Each structure stands twice: as C-alpha cells, then as structure tokens.
Amino acid sequence: MGEKLICNNKKAFHDYFIEERYEAGMVLQGTEVKSLRNGKANLNDSFAMVKNGEAFLHNFHINPYDFGNRENHDPDRMRKLLLHKKEIVKLFSKIREQGYTLIPLRVYFKDGKVKTELGLAKGKKNYDKREVMKQKDMKRDVVIALKERNRGARDRD
Description:
By secondary structure, the chain is of the alpha+beta class. Helix content is 38%, strand content 36%. The strands form two sheets. The protein has a seven-stranded antiparallel sheet with strand order 1-8-9-2-7-5-4. It has a two-stranded antiparallel ribbon with strand order 3-6. A hairpin with a 2-residue loop joins strand 8 and strand 9. The longest helix has 31 residues.
C-alpha cells in the first residue's frame, strides 16, 4: 500500500541534530485513527519518554473526531509507543547518560497502520542554527546564479 504522511515536525530539524531514526507503532483509540485519516494532528512541542521499560509520546495533539460524540478521546493524552525491548533499552541508556532527546519527526500510515518516526536528537545551540541557515542561503544563492548563467547561455545561442 505504501506510506501516507499525516504530519511532520519541521521544527525538529531546525532545533536538533538528528543522530538516529526509529520507526514505532502507536496504541490509539478508534476515534483517534479516524481523526488522523482526516489529517488532524499536530507534532509541535511533542517528545517521547521511556518509563518503566515502555516508551510514551507526550504532547502529541490529535483533534477530536467531528462525529465521535461521547466516544471521543482526550486530544493531548499520553500515547504508548510500540518498540522492541532492545530498542527501548538502547534509547533509555542514551537519553539517560548522553543528553539526547527522543523527538517524533513524522507520523504516517504504513500498510493501514499508524507509525511514528522517532529521532534520537541532540539540541542545537544558537550559533549552530545560524551556521545552518547561512549554509542554506549560500546553497540557494549558488543555485540561483547557476540558473541565471544557464539562461544567459541559452539566450546567446
């Protein structure tokens, strides 16, 4: 079936260096899945934590389903992430000792199931962010200059 993107976290790439990526399933209620099919979710300021050998996603906002009436879910509840035990232990040790954070990068449907891509991230300092922006500006200027140069060469021919 392939993948269908629900939402992604663009801010994470601006604020963090992403070291490793993991794919995790999510435990959801029925109205949450229906709301996700409508694309009503927000990953801003969300993060994952490991407690008692289980991984949980915090601050992941899923809007209530329009036709869910009393069966609707709490939009900001903690959601359990489905990872292998070895992955959880590895993530817990890295988060605990080395100052890493576990950030959701995107949420998507894969073969009819909701998946979350988690990134093991280290925070950027302000000077790192400025350096990355400077490099992007330089790349953009080079691309524009090459396009203008190629356009001028075609006009001469």
